[in-house]
Specification:
Order of helices and strands: EHEHEHEHEH
Structural class: alpha/beta
Distance between the termini: 9 Å
CATH topology: Rossmann fold
Strand order of the largest sheet: 2-1-3-4-5
Helix content: 40-55%
Radius of gyration: 13 Å
Shape: globular
CATH architecture: 3-Layer(aba) Sandwich
Number of domains: 1
Number of strands: 5
């Protein structure tokens, strides 16, 4: 079997990011977390994650700005939007990512449904197969 897929969780709430990391590790990912939205693009360049789980409401760099940076860096991986925002906001952010040329993000509302998150991560593993 090839290398494990990598996941990077980006959330200014460190416990939320760590929960995502634990779920991802149980699914077989090499998982990492950061609460530093300003340093994310450097971390992406260093880690080259296959999947990113991103909170859309962060200080310093919001999700739209982060997606713009990822699009400029030609990020090829999957994105999971993780947020407590309303569905209309989530849909708008999801569409913005697509319009920037990123893969259509999966959306997971907070509080997280861990079974749903595991399902999303497992489907991505199966695609990598």
């Amino acid at each position: 079997m090839g290398h494990a897929l990598k996941l990077l969780a980006v959330d200014d709430d460190a416990p939320s990011a760590e929960l995502i990391v634990r779920v991802a590790e149980r699914c077989g990912y090499d998982a990492f977390a950061t609460s530093d939205s300003r340093g994310v693009i450097n971390l992406v360049a260093a880690l080259r994650p296959d999947v990113m789980a991103v909170d859309i409401s962060m200080p310093h760099v919001d999700a739209i700005e982060l997606f713009r940076m990822l699009a400029e860096a030609k990020y090829p991986g999957d994105i999971i939007i993780v947020s407590g925002q309303d569905e209309q906001t989530l849909s708008m952010v999801q569409r913005s990512a697509e319009l920037m040329g990123l893969r259509r993000p999966h959306v997971h509302q907070k509080p997280l449904d861990f079974a749903h998150l595991r399902e999303t991560l497992t489907m991505r593993l199966a695609k990598a197969g």
